[in-house]
Design goal:
Blueprint lengths: L2 E5 L3 E2 L5 E8 L6 E8 L6 E6 L6 E3 L9 E4 L4 E6 L8 E9 L15 E2 L3 E5 L2
Parallel strand pairs: 2-11
Antiparallel strand pairs: 1-3, 3-8, 4-5, 4-9, 5-6, 7-8, 9-10, 9-11
């Protein structure tokens, strides 16, 4: 059974940092493109950071470029989203997603491309 266990969400002050983790079980993440998405209150879900199977291609929303690097650890079968310089507008529920692909160098930005989703972890940025 394919499952994700997301963790790392918390209440943090503006300017603070968090690292979100997405641990996969029931499958090996190698061979899957990965994305982090978020849904802010009253808004639609949007892509944040996405990474290709090879790890060589990354795409970012303009609003998080330079602040939310995505990475993957094959040994731990886990994907991370490092979040720095957090802003109140980053408040949202964050979801990781994965999809199998033979295209190792494409990072998929559209949520319609993803087959498996985590349950979400809440990030609140507030003073």
């Amino acid at each position: 059974q394919v499952q994700f266990v997301e963790s790392g969400g918390a209440l943090v002050q503006p300017g603070g940092s968090l690292r979100l983790s997405c641990a996969a079980s029931g499958f090996i993440l190698d061979g899957y493109a990965i994305g982090w998405f978020r849904r802010a209150p009253g808004k639609e879900r949007e892509a944040v950071s996405c990474i290709s199977t090879s790890g060589e291609t990354e795409t970012y929303a303009n609003s998080v470029k330079g602040r939310f690097p995505i990475s993957r650890d094959k040994v731990k079968n886990t994907v991370y989203l490092q979040m720095i310089s957090l802003k109140p507008e980053d408040t949202a529920v964050y979801y990781c997603a994965a999809t199998p692909t033979s295209n190792r160098d494409t990072a998929y930005y559209s949520d319609t491309k993803y087959r498996y989703w985590g349950q979400g972890t809440r990030v609140t940025v507030s003073s």
